[in-house]
Amino acid sequence: MSAKTDTEVIIGGKVFTLSGYESEEYLQKVASYINNKMSEYGKVDSFRRQPLDTQSVLLQLNIADDYFKAKKQISLLEEEIQVKEKELYDLKHELIASQIKLENTEKNVKELQDQLNENAKKMVRVETELKDLKEHHTTKGNSKQ
By the 8 A CB rule, do 4 and 20 touch? Predict the structure, then answer.
């Protein structure tokens, strides 16, 4: 666990000492967020006319609203990630199946090419034998005359 951090921040014009295990930069960022919310609502006349305790509750409600919206967005993004991970998983398996199919097809093509080469060699031998037989037969026929 990281070391505890104490840092002074200004929120609403007052100095507060925040303590936590987060970095000083993070604690300043939180204070800045609160100040921005206070500034944003401080510009709205209907907000400024409210008593301070009502302003505080409205500010807290708005921050809670931001929190729940962010939490919902995270949930939606996590669901989207799960869908994408499943799609990726399916695509990887489809790729592997296609690679295996390709390898088998390449193997079959090689076997057929080897058979074709063997058959071509046999054909050449048979043609050569046939040619030799014809020449031998023709030579015998000519020698009888």
Answer: yes
Does residue 42 form part of some domain?
A: yes
pTM of the model: 0.62
Structure tokens of 73? Answer: 């967005």
Distance CA 127, CA 142 (A): 22
Let me know: does 11 contact 32? Beta carbons within 8 Å: no
**By residue range, what is the domain housing residue 32?**
1-49
Q: What share of the chain is helix, strand, coil (3-state, %, to 5)?
A: 80, 10, 10
22, 1 in Cβ contact below 8 A?
Answer: no
What would the pLDDT profile of 10-46 be if each residue is shown by its tens digit? 999 999 999 999 999 999 999 999 999 999 999 999 9
CA neighbours closer than 13 Å in the CB half-sphere of residue 52: 1
Number of domains in the chain: 1
Does the pLDDT at position 121 exceed 60? yes
Q: Give the pLDDT confidence of 54-97 residue by residue, as tens digits.
A: 999 999 999 999 999 999 999 999 999 999 999 999 999 999 99
Domain assignment present for residue 140? The answer is: no
